[in-house]
Amino acid sequence: MSEQRTTQHTDQGIIFAPWERAFRRVLSPFEEFIHKQSTSGLLLMAAAVIALYLANSSFAESYLHTIHTPAFVGIGCWGINMSLHHWVNDGLMALFFFVVGLELKREIMVGELSDIKQAALPIFAAIGGMVVPALIFLAFNHDTDAAHGWGVPMATDIAFAVGALALLGTRIPKALVTFLVALAIADDLGAVLVIALFYTQDLALNWLLVSLALFAVLMMFNFAGIRTAIPYFIVAVFLWYAFLQSGVHATLAGVLGAFTVPARSKYNPLFFVDLINEHIDKFIANRRQEDTIMSSNRLYSIVQNLDESVKGVQTPLQQLELTWHLPVAFLVIPIFAIFNAGIPVELGSLGDTFSNPVMLGVMLGLLFGKFIGISGACWLAIRFGVAQLPTATRFSQIAGVSVLGGIGFTMSIFIAELGFPGHPEHLLMAKTGVLAGSLLAGLIGFAWLWWLGRKPHSPV
Question: Which end of the chain is less congested by CB atoms within 10 angstroms, N or C?
Answer without folding.
Answer: N
